[in-house]
Amino acid sequence: MASGIYLDEGSEGFSVTKNLVSHAGTDSFLLHIVANDTITNNIFYESGSSGGQISNIIGGVSINANIFYSQKPEVGVFNVGGNAPTSVANNLYFSSSVSETKALIANEVSVLPNSSPSVAADPLFVNAPATILT
Length: 134
Description:
single chain, mainly beta, five-stranded parallel sheet, four-stranded parallel sheet
């Protein structure tokens, strides 16, 4: 199993922007012992166990303006070990049930004290015709 995006062991100053991570084996992203990195404007769709795994943040990490989408109510948004990110704001969370989606927002606020209000809503993805994608 693998993470969609993996910053590890001193990764510093990276900007992870405008990615689509779909059906990652474990987590959409994993941040471990990192500093001054940004995770912005990404779509994390249907990952295995969580939207993001975060552990031992050194400082200056921002997770802003992303979409976290899961039809599996058991999948959480963040698993945090060690220090929390510096900024978590304006993300959109969707789970297969309204109560689960609201719980994701409550989890963000309780687990990530430096967070700003995010939104729990359906991002209304559409099936684009194949001709658009070629």
